[in-house]
Amino acid sequence: MPAQGPAVAQAPTDDKASQPLLEVDDIHLRFGGLNALSGVSFNVQKGDIQAIIGPNGAGKTCILNCICRFYHPHRGRIVFNGQDISKVPTHKVAELGIARSFQNIELFRGMTVLGNIKLGHHVHMSAGFLSGGFYFGKARREEMRVRKEIEERIIDLLEIEAIRKQVVGTLPYGLQKRVELARALAMEPNILLLDEPMAGMNLEETEDMARFILDINDEWGVTVVLIEHDMGVVMDISDNVVVLDFGTKIAQGTPAEVSKNPHVIEAYLGSDDAAHSKLGL
Predict the structure, then answer these.
(1) How confident is the model at residue 142 (pLDDT cuts 50, 70, 90)?
(2) CA angle (222 as vertex; 26, 75 as ends), nearest 5
(3) Tell me, what's the pLDDT at 26?
């Protein structure tokens, strides 16, 4: 019997290469006679930071609203983690591992920071009515686990220990944006949809938020879809960029590729000089 040679090692399967985590396929959305999105398609690979850019009114937030099922496209489909979620009820989307922050802060201003963050984990709570009402058994164990998760990981990561007991409405805008990100993280997402997380922030706050997003992506393995007007941030932290204009996709690629695309320069940034200045080239 001939001697067998050494076993050939099988190449590891690359999940990122085999199937996108999120597929947006030929999405059409209308409001009356206005076409907000016209055939928009793109994929988001697992582990990436995917930016969506474009001028005001280009349809960026509409895309996030379609993914979250706030809006119902007239045509097309959205596939998340291999599942077509085009008809999933809106209130079930968070359970799939999709978390969201908003362009305008959507927090309970009369509650504490900790209270707001803990609400984000509510979607995963499974204790029954009696144990929850009387706070014993499973409800107590879940509460302790959530508290540990929030206090030891999320609050520490976002550096908000000093404000954890403060009422959200008394905090500066930049810290409120940080609390909203913390609440989204408490949902234990596989993908995080961020709608202009740096809007209205000063330079230091912007740098901090960019650092937090990179840490969430790198250390926690959370895929990020980011709408942002700060092109410096987009170019620095994104793996891939989709560009929208008047509800259509006009470009997609790496930040370097997109920054040199003539359609992007013309439609989104204007003249070559303006484009180079805005992109820091």
Answers:
(1) low
(2) 15
(3) 97
Lowest mean pLDDT among 38-47, 48-57, 128-137: 128-137
How far apart CA 281 and CA 173 sit, in angstroms, is 31
The tokens describing 37, both together, are 């999105």
The residue type at 132: G
Nearest to 46 by CA among 217, 186, 193: 217
> How confident is the model at residue 118, as a pLDDT?
84
Looking at the DSSP bridge assignments, the partners of residue 77 are: 25
Domains, the chain, with CATH or none: 13-97+190-281 (3.40.50.300), 113-188 (no CATH)
What's 5's DSSP letter?
P
Query: For residue 127, what pLDDT is reported?
Result: 44
CA distance 257 to 253: 6
Do the bridges between strand 223-227 and strand 191-195 make them parallel or antiparallel, or are there none, so unpaired? parallel
Average pLDDT, rounded, for the chain: 84
Triad 115, 175, 223: Cα angle to 5° = 80
- Separation in Å, CA 77 to CA 39, 50, 72, 73, 153: 11, 19, 10, 8, 35
Dist CA 238 CA 233 (whole Å): 8
